[in-house]
Amino acid sequence: MIFMQLLGEVTGGAAGPVLKWAGGKRQMLRQFSPLFPKQLPAVYHEPFLGSGAVFFCLKPGASYLTDSSEELINFYMVLKSSVEDLILDLDKHVHTKAYYYRIRSEDPRTLTSVERASRFLYLNKCGYNGLWRVNRAGRNNVPYGSYKNPNYRNFAALRKAGMALHSAVLQRDDFEITLEQALPEDFIYCDPPYHPLSETASFRSYTAGSFTLSDQQRLAGMFHELDKRGCLVMASNSDTPFIRKIYAGYNITTVRGRRAINCRGTGRSPVNELVIRNYGRPVESRI
Length: 287
Prior knowledge:
Rossmann fold; Adenine-specific Methyltransferase, domain 2
């Protein structure tokens, strides 16, 4: 199957994600394989880019990649256009607790785009649990992670990822604005911040604001609009009554996901997640 071949290439040395990201889909690709379109359309959109696992797996031609995180999009822009400068700057970092907190305290707005991308990757790899999280002021507040060898100098992987981004258009914006340009037969994959599994569940955003119930409803409305437009749309989210309700009438497949970023080991056990599509038929989950 074509997507299993793509998956094999990603895991076998081709370009793949270079960030650890909350909700990243690298571990889900085998389950996603039968859910992608049988023939990949010419144009691909991913409005919640994150680690980019699906993008790197599919290796589409024309791609529009978007996220609301300014630091994330700056990182990918630098990776695409100035990967060698990024590699040179990464070499200055040292893995100590004092250095980590000094770098974390910097105002990224005072840095060049390359320095900013270098800082972002260093903090992502050296912070606790590999998490990227900011407060309401937009400042990173992740504590130091005690790793023996955080891999922020994987230069070969960075170069491959930069090459894969060569034909992609990168943009920081709200998903609703970026998806207005989607045309009939384009393929869109949406992986938003998930709806909490319970009302008391902790929800921590990687952007300065959180993804609210209203935002989830806006996204479902955009999903419906793209469906009417003739696009192929696939979305991931939590398996909750609310998500099932706002996507009622579409093809819903249950898959098993692992909460990879959690301060307690008990919080990393597999849970049900939903894949919603406006094409194909529901497919039984593959665990």
